[in-house]
Amino acid sequence: MIIRSADFIISAVHPKQFPSTPVPEFAFIGRSNVGKSSLINMLTNRKLLAKTSGRPGKTRTLNFFTINNEWNLVDMPGYGYARASKTDREKFVQIINSYLRTRKSLVYLFILIDSRHLPLAQDMDFIIHCAEMQLPFVLVFTKTDKCSKPELDSNIAAYSKKLNENFESLPPIFLASSMSRNGRDELLAFIFEQYALYADMVKKLGN
Ligand code: GTP
Ligand code: MG
C-alpha cells in the first residue's frame, strides 16, 4: 500500500469537467469543516494537495486527484454550509448530486462525520439519501484527537443505534485523525483492497 504519486487533475464546477478516463474513484464528503481536505492530505502524505481552512466553506468545487496514476480521490464541497449564499448552496447540491447519481466509476463514498458530536439530523439525512441511491459508502469519524475515548465510544454507539433504526446492517466504520494520523493504515488498506476488487471486476467484464 504505497502512494507513489498524488497529483491534482481538475477543479470541476460542472459535470462536463469530470475527468472522462474511467478509473476507480473514492470520494470524500461530509459537512463543512469536518476535515475532508485534511484527510486527503493525510492519506496521500501531501500537506498542501487539497486546500484546507479553519473556516468552513473552503472547498467549493469537486477536486479530482490521481493517485499512482491508477485511481482517483475526489474532494467535495461540504454540505449544509449555512453561511454560503443560497445560490452557492444550490450549486454545491447540484454538482454533488450530479456526481453521486451519474459517476459509474465511484467505488466508495467516504462520508465523514465529526466524532465530537452526537448524531446530527443533517448527517443522518445525508446517509439515508446515499443508502436510497444505493451508493456504496463507509463512515469515517474524524478529528478523533479532539475527543476523549469515552466520548468517542458513546458518540459512535449513539450513531450505531440511529443507523440500526434505519438499516439492517451497519456500513463499515473507520476512525481517523488527520492530526495524529490515526486510521491512515486502515483507510488505505480498505481503499487498496476495494481498488483491486474493482479492477478485477472490470477486467472480467471486459473479457
Ligand atoms: P470544507 O472544505 O470547508 O467543507 O472543509 P473540510 O471538510 O475540507 O475541512 P478541512 O480539511 O479544511 O479542515 C477544517 C479544519 O479542521 C482545519 O482547521 C483543519 O486543520 C481542522 N482539522 C481537520 N482534520 C482534523 C483532525 O483530524 N484533527 C484536528 N484537531 N483538526 C482537524
Ligand atoms: Mg475542504
Largest sheet: 7 strands, mixed
Topology as a string of helices (H) and strands (E): EEHEEHEHEHEH
What is the subunit organization of this protein?
Answer: single chain
User: How many β-strands, per DSSP?
Assistant: 7
Ligand roster: guanosine-5'-triphosphate, magnesium ion
Name the strands of the widest sheet in spatial order. 1-3-4-2-5-6-7
Number of structural units classed as domains: 1
The shape is: globular
- Measured by DSSP, the beta-strand proportion falls in 15-25%
Ranges with pLDDT <50 over ≥5 residues? none
CATH fold category name: Rossmann fold
Keywords, separated by commas or semicolons:
207 residues; 7 strands; binds guanosine-5'-triphosphate; binds magnesium ion
Outline of the structure:
This protein has five helices and seven strands, in the order E-E-H-E-E-H-E-H-E-H-E-H. It has helices at 36-44, 86-102, 121-132, 149-166, 184-206; strands at 6-12, 25-30, 62-67, 71-75, 106-114, 137-142, 173-175. It is globular, with a radius of gyration of 16 Å.
Topology (SSEs and partners):
Elements: E1 6-12, E2 25-30, H1 36-44, E3 62-67, E4 71-75, H2 86-102, E5 106-114, H3 121-132, E6 137-142, H4 149-166, E7 173-175, H5 184-206
Bound molecules: guanosine-5'-triphosphate and magnesium ion (MG).
Magnesium ion binds at residues 36-37, 58-59, 75.
Plain-language structure description:
The protein is α/β, with parallel strands linked by helices and 207 residues long. It has one domain (6-206): 3-Layer(aba) Sandwich (Rossmann fold). It is built from five helices and seven strands, in the order E-E-H-E-E-H-E-H-E-H-E-H. Helix 3 links the parallel strand 5 and strand 6. The radius of gyration is 16 Å and the shape is globular. The structure holds guanosine-5'-triphosphate and magnesium ion (MG).
